[in-house]
Write a structure and sequence with these properties.
Elements: E1 2-7, H1 30-42, E2 47-50, H2 61-64, H3 75-83, E3 90-96, H4 102-115, E4 120-125, H5 132-135, H6 144-162, E5 170-173, E6 178-180, E7 189-191, E8 196-198, E9 212-215, H7 220-229, E10 232-233, H8 240-253, E11 265-266, E12 269-275, H9 278-289, H10 294-305, H11 330-341, H12 345-352, E13 359-364, H13 365-377, E14 383-387, H14 393-408, H15 421-425
C-alpha cells in the first residue's frame, strides 16, 4: 500500500484553524511544516504532497475573512526546504501547465530532484480556478478542452527535456579533458500547437533519472492525460464502486500507450479522523463540523460549484447548476453527492467542508484499516493520499494508530525500501519517448 501525506494549511477541514489543536498560522510557519514532514517520514509515508493555486481559491473577501486558506508558502520553494530536513520522504507539489512554460518548469523540478537526491515529483494540473487568469492579466480562463490539449503537449516537452542526458553521457575524465559524450545527448527540437522549445536542459539527471509525474484529473480528458504520462494519480472517488471504475478505466487506457498498468499508482484522497474508539472519533469530527462558519461554508460550496448560491435558502435543495466550458469534474461530483444523499445546501457544504469531495472515514484504527485494505485488495486503488483534518494532531494520530495496524496486517512497509521516490513507489523510469500503440494489434 502506498501513502502520500497531503498538506493543507492548518488541516483539510475548513474549520481546522479554529480547533483547539489547530495552528492558525500554519500556512506560513516553516518550522511547523518541517515538523509535519518529519512526522510523515516517521510514519514511512512515500511522499509529502502540496496542492497549489496561483490566486485566491475562494470568492469574496468578506467570506475570506473566515477562511484560513488564503495565503501560504509557494509550494516549490517549500519543497526545497523540506528536502533538506528529510532523508527518504518524497517531495511533490503542484504546478500548472496553463500559466507556466515547459522549459522553466522542467528546469525547476529537475533541480529539486537533484538537490533532494531523487525524491521530487511534479503534480500536473491545468488550473480549474478561473480567477487565475486575472493573476496573469488575461481576459478569460482557457476552456477546459484547450487546457488539456496544452497539457498533453506541455508534458511531452517537459519529459523530452528531462531526457536530454542519456545513460552514461557524463564522462568527466580529467585526464582526457572530455566532460560528456555528445553522441548520448538528446537535443529536443519541438514545435507544436502551443510551444516551440529547443533543448537540451541544462540540469543533469538525479539518482532517479527524472521527477515522478503526478496528476489528479478525473474527467475523460484527465484520465487520458494520466494514462499517457502519469506515474501517480490522485483521485476523488466517493464510492468503492466509483473508485473501482476509475481504477480499471485508467489502467486499461494505459495499454494504448504501451504502458504496463503497474507503472501507475492510483492513490485517491482520503480524509481520516481516527481515535481509540469509534465513538471518540465521531465526537472529534462532530466538534469540527460545529466550528464551520455558515458564510464560509456557503462560499466554499459556491466556489467549488462555480455558481453563486448566496440567494438560495441553505435549508433547501441544491438548485440546477448550469455547466460551462471551464468547470472541473468536481462540480459533477458535488451535484452527484447532493442528489444521491438528498442533501440540502447546508448539508452539502458540511459534507464537503472536511475533504472537498474526497472520501472520508471516521472511526477506530481497525475500522479505518478495514476500509483501506478492502479498497486496495479489491482493485479500487494502490494506496491513498491521506488528508488529516487538523494539523498536527490528526497526522500524529494516524501515525500512532493507523500505521501500526497496517503493519500488523502486513500491508505496509516497516522501513523504506529505497532512497528515491521512484524506488519507494515501486516504479521504474518510464521509457522515452512514449509511443501510442494500436489496440487492435
Amino acid at each position: 500500500m502506498k501513502l502520500g501525506m497531503f498538506y493543507w494549511p492548518c488541516g483539510h477541514h475548513i474549520a481546522a484553524w479554529r480547533h483547539p489543536d489547530g495552528i492558525p498560522n500554519s500556512g506560513s510557519n516553516l518550522p511547523h511544516i518541517i515538523e509535519l514532514a518529519q512526522l510523515a517520514e516517521r510514519g514511512l509515508f512515500d511522499m509529502f504532497f502540496m496542492a497549489d493555486s496561483v490566486s485566491f481559491w475562494r470568492g469574496e473577501l468578506d467570506a475570506m475573512t473566515h477562511d484560513s486558506y488564503g495565503t501560504w508558502i509557494e509550494p516549490f520553494t517549500l519543497m526545497g526546504s523540506l528536502a533538506q530536513h528529510t532523508n527518504n520522504l518524497g517531495v511533490v507539489c503542484t504546478a500548472t501547465t496553463t500559466y507556466d512554460q515547459p522549459y522553466s518548469l522542467a528546469r525547476r523540478f529537475a533541480s529539486l530532484d537533484l538537490v533532494s537526491g531523487g525524491r521530487a515529483g511534479w503534480n500536473l494540473v491545468t488550473s480549474g480556478n478561473r480567477a487565475e487568469a486575472d493573476s496573469f492579466g488575461l481576459p478569460e480562463h482557457m476552456e477546459k478542452a484547450q487546457r488539456y490539449k496544452r497539457a498533453h503537449e506541455f508534458a511531452h516537452v517537459v519529459r523530452g527535456l528531462w531526457n536530454s542526458w542519456g545513460e552514461g553521457v557524463f564522462i568527466r575524465d580529467q585526464k582526457s579533458g572530455i566532460f560528456f559524450n555528445k553522441n548520448k545527448l538528446r537535443t529536443l527540437d519541438h514545435e507544436g500547437e502551443f510551444f516551440k522549445v529547443r533543448g537540451p536542459l541544462n540540469v543533469p539527471p538525479s539518482p532517479q533519472g527524472e521527477p515522478v509525474m503526478v496528476q489528479a484529473g478525473a474527467s475523460d480528458d484527465g484520465r487520458e492525460l494520466a494514462a499517457e504520462t502519469a506515474e501517480v494519480i490522485f483521485g476523488a472517488q466517493q464510492t468503492f464502486e466509483g473508485a473501482q471504475e476509475f481504477y480499471n478505466d485508467v489502467k486499461h487506457r494505459m495499454l494504448a500507450y504501451g504502458r504496463h498498468p503497474d507503472s501507475l499508482k492510483v492513490m485517491p484522497g482520503l480524509l481520516v479522523c481516527v481515535a481509540e474508539t469509534h465513538d471518540e472519533a465521531v465526537k472529534k469530527y462532530d466538534q469540527l463540523q460545529d466550528l464551520i462558519d455558515p458564510v464560509t461554508g456557503l462560499q466554499l460550496l459556491s466556489k467549488r460549484l462555480d455558481y453563486d448560491l448566496s440567494g438560495y435558502p441553505i435549508d433547501g435543495p441544491l438548485p440546477d447548476i448550469p455547466r460551462n466550458k471551464t468547470s472541473s469534474t468536481r462540480v459533477d461530483l458535488f451535484i452527484e453527492i447532493a442528489h444521491r444523499e438528498n442533501l440540502t445546501i447546508k448539508d452539502l457544504y458540511r459534507r464537503v467542508a472536511g475533504a472537498r469531495g474526497h472520501y472520508e472515514v471516521v472511526g477506530s484504527a481497525v475500522e479505518v484499516v478495514d476500509m483501506m485494505q478492502r479498497w486496495v485488495a479489491d482493485g479500487a486503488c494502490d494506496g491513498f493520499n491521506i488528508m488529516p483534518p487538523v494539523f498536527p494532531s490528526s497526522l500524529r494520530e494516524f501515525v500512532e494508530l493507523v500505521i501500526p495496524e497496517l503493519q500488523r496486517r502486513g500491508i505496509f512497509r516497516t522501513s523504506y525500501s529505497g532512497t528515491t521516490l521512484r524506488e519507494n513507489l515501486g516504479l521504474v523510469r518510464p521509457p522515452w519517448p512514449i509511443k501510442r500503440t494500436n489496440l487492435n494489434e
